[in-house]
Write a structure and sequence with these properties.
Radius of gyration: 17 Å
Largest sheet: 5 strands, mixed, barrel
Order of helices and strands: EEEHEHEHEHEEEEHHHEH
Strand order of the largest sheet: 7-10-8-9-11
Strand content: 15-25%
Helix content: 25-40%
Shape: globular
């Protein structure tokens, strides 16, 4: 059976909301909520990868595992790769990179993504959800993905493009991208050895490096559309929802 490792890249210095990993919901830091979601999948070991001692200490205090990485990384994928090398997990076949600002992601969606990766023998996979509010299309904090064909319950369509801008002008099959990637180890190594592309730098989207180099990214449809935390407004909205529950 294929072995998977769930790695969560996290840092304090996010430009739009500095310090967000340690903002609390129900008296638990956001990063620890993400660790819980990863553990609830039952897929494999869950480890936070961070450049910040504060995050490391908070994760460990709340029963999670964490590892320190360098401060030089341009994106989360570079950070998890350093952690993977340090951890020396040679028996691992796949790595799931679970973004540290997705505390409401559904563990069942993560499991479904991994199952589709195995069944389709895919190199890279991610999740997306239906857009039910048109205001999301013009919100640059929400990344959109366009797929070749319509996403349905158990298909795994190829991504055509990712953007922070509105993709719907004369284009079909546009969805809300969710911050998670599943990599076959060989694909992760290939990605890391590719140079950063102009498209990637301009749009501040690391997945465009793969698209620009003809690496296929498959997209699975998520049942729910979790709120990712990019701004203080996102945090307050999600805090209200999660604490009300």
């Amino acid at each position: 059976m294929s072995k998977v490792l769930i790695l969560i890249p996290s840092r304090m210095s996010a430009k739009r909301l500095p310090g967000k990993p340690l903002l609390e919901i129900n008296n638990l830091p956001i990063i620890s909520h993400v660790v819980k979601r990863g553990k609830e999948t039952g897929l494999g070991e869950v480890i936070v990868c961070t450049e910040d001692e504060e995050i490391l200490i908070a994760v460990q205090k709340n029963g999670g595992s964490a590892i320190l990485t360098g401060k030089q990384h341009k994106n989360g994928t570079e950070r998890i790769y350093e952690a993977f090398l340090k951890l020396k997990k040679d028996e691992v076949d796949y790595i799931i990179s679970l973004q540290g600002d997705e505390p409401a992601i559904d563990p069942l969606d993560i499991k479904n993504l991994f199952n589709l990766m195995i069944n389709s023998n895919s190199e890279i996979g991610t999740l997306a959800s239906e857009i039910n509010d048109n205001s999301e299309l013009d919100n640059e904090n929400i990344v959109k993905v366009q797929t070749i064909q319509k996403l349905e319950k158990n298909n795994f369509q190829s991504a055509l493009s990712f953007s922070r801008n509105n993709l719907t002008k004369n284009k079909l099959n546009v969805y809300h991208h969710i911050g998670i990637y599943c990599y076959k180890i060989s694909a992760l190594k290939k990605f890391i050895n590719l140079k950063e592309t102009e498209n990637e730098k301009k749009n501040k989207l690391e997945q465009l490096r793969a698209i620009d180099n003809n690496m296929k990214i498959n997209v699975a449809l998520a049942k729910s559309s979790p709120i990712g935390i990019d701004t203080i407004e996102d945090y307050m909205e999600l805090k209200k929802i999660m604490e009300y529950k």
